[in-house]
Design goal:
- The complex is a heterodimer of chains A (about 210) and B (about 110).
- Chain A is built from five helices and eleven strands.
- By secondary structure, chain A is α+β, with helices and mostly antiparallel strands.
- Chain A folds into two domains: about 100 residues, Probable tRNA modification gtpase trme, domain 1 (Gyrase A, domain 2); about 80 residues, Heterotetrameric sarcosine oxidase (Alpha-Beta Plaits).
- In chain A, the strands form two sheets. In chain A, strands 8-9-10-7-1-11 form a six-stranded mixed beta sheet. A five-stranded antiparallel beta sheet of chain A has the order 3-4-5-2-6, with helices on one face.
- In chain A, helix 2 crosses helix 3.
- Chain A starts with about 20 loop residues before the first helix and ends with a strand.
- Chain B has about 110 residues and is α+β, with helices and mostly antiparallel strands.
- Chain B has one domain: Folate-binding fold.
- In chain B, the strands form two sheets. A four-stranded antiparallel beta sheet of chain B has the order 3-4-5-6, with no helix packed on it. In chain B, strands 1-2 form a two-stranded antiparallel sheet.
- The longest helix of chain B has 20 residues.
- The chains are: A alpha+beta (about 210), B alpha+beta (about 110).
- Chains A and B meet through strand 8 of A and strand 2 of B.
- Chain A: This is Aminomethyltransferase folate-binding domain-containing protein.
């Protein structure tokens, strides 16, 4: 194992933790109702890890530890059988791993054990970003007027994820399934993106699931 | 608005995702101490400003955050090719004039026939 200093970023349960959108829910509200065409849901407190290094070395490690092979093609996004763990290609030597909250530190430790002295870097970015789910029949329309990337199904099939500009903010846009889109946004931009989504989605009717 | 092909992402993206980073293929002198003031000044401050084919460095700032090179025509703004760092351009000012001359010759031949 390498001599990198690691620590579990999760605090004791005694200390209350809040999602990046807790402030937004209080100030901007969370509309609920029937007759909506757009559904928003925040998947807060997930474990986000950034893996950097050579594709071959990392591929062996994540196959062994996580049971998913590393997506080698640009813009690829792969999930495990349960759909809860995913790896996304970000750049030729960088991948984003998202796992259920609490799993990221054990995963990081296991990966470090497996990788040993190989040349790589693992950073826990769980505290820095959050995941927003956008679904509903108007989801595509909303994305079309917000994202500069071409989100037409012919260009954006299921299993693709890109880093692009969402309402002037840098976000990762992913499509894990036919009807569901995911936005990985910076924590500091979460309130802005949430309010943008509420505003842009008001014409369709928005339902926020908490 | 450019629609730029990122050689690392393998697809065209909007210009908004990129930043220009100036002239490409500038090599830092191996031994700065042995440079004359003029050589060092040239390396540090002076850049080409050609009319025609120009090689530039760009970064895919919002996408993969990799640097790469673009060969661009400064008159027509046309992007002739993009290629990864460390690679050499296949289109240069020299072979561009050659191909234009060749095209002119073949055109003349066409007229003659």
């Amino acid at each position: 194992m390498s001599n990198a200093a690691t620590f579990d970023t999760r605090t004791d349960t005694a200390i209350p933790v809040e999602s990046p959108l807790a402030y937004s829910y209080r100030h901007s509200g969370a509309p609920r109702g029937s007759g909506y065409r757009l559904k928003l849901r925040e998947r807060a407190m997930l474990g986000h890890l950034i893996l950097r290094g050579g594709a071959i070395v990392l591929d062996e490690a994540v196959r062994e530890v996580l049971g998913i092979s590393l997506p080698g093609k640009p813009q690829a996004l792969v999930h495990d059988a349960s759909g809860e763990r995913s790896i996304q290609w970000l750049s030729p030597d960088e991948w984003l791993v998202i796992v259920p909250g609490g799993e990221e530190f054990p995963l990081e430790t296991k990966l470090r054990e497996y990788l040993g002295d190989a040349h790589y870097a693992i950073s826990d970015v769980s505290g820095g970003q959050t995941l927003l789910e956008v679904s509903g029949e108007a989801a595509l329309e909303l994305l079309m007027k917000t994202v500069i990337y071409d989100v037409h199904p012919s260009n954006f099939p299921v299993g693709k994820g890109v880093t692009t500009v969402f309402a002037k903010a840098t976000t990762i846009l992913r499509r894990p399934s036919e009807e569901r889109w995911e936005l990985v946004v910076r924590r500091s931009f979460a309130d802005y993106c949430y309010r943008w989504l509420l505003d842009a989605g008001s014409e369709y009717g928005v339902n926020v699931e908490q | 608005m450019f629609y730029i092909y990122c050689p690392y992402c393998g697809e065209h993206r909007e210009e908004e995702e990129f930043h220009p980073k100036g002239q490409a293929h500038i090599e830092r002198p191996k031994n700065p101490e042995e440079c004359s003031d003029e050589e060092w000044g040239d390396y540090l401050f002076f850049r080409d400003n050609p009319r025609g084919v120009h090689h530039e460095m760009w970064v895919h700032a919002v996408g993969c955050r990799k640097f790469f090179n673009i060969t661009r025509h400064t008159v027509s703004y046309e992007i002739l090719e993009t290629y990864k760092m460390g690679e050499q351009p296949s289109i240069t000012a020299a072979n561009q004039t050659q191909s234009r001359e060749a095209a002119a010759v073949s055109h003349q031949e066409g007229v003659r026939a």
